[in-house]
Predict the 3D structure of the following.
Amino acid sequence: MEKTKKYKVTNNAKDVRKFRDSFLGKDILVEPKKFIFTNKPPKENGVWKVENIEKLEKKKQLNPKEVIQNGNKKNRK
């Protein structure tokens, strides 16, 4: 059973950053202004913007019809 992702982590730096995903056990390269979903937030505060997905869904900022693949948004109609 796959764990649900709890955090949306966005790269605020102006260069590609490496994010260590403890669930996958490997490093993920994240381009500037792109995001990934993870279970644990990173410890570097200045580089990453961390948002709780449950809070975003409650505020309806995250559309449930929105499909997210590799940090890119694709809307279904």
In short: Strands lie at 7-11, 17-21, 26-30, 35-38, 48-52, 66-69, 72-75. DSSP finds one helix and seven strands in the chain. The chain has one domain: 7-75.
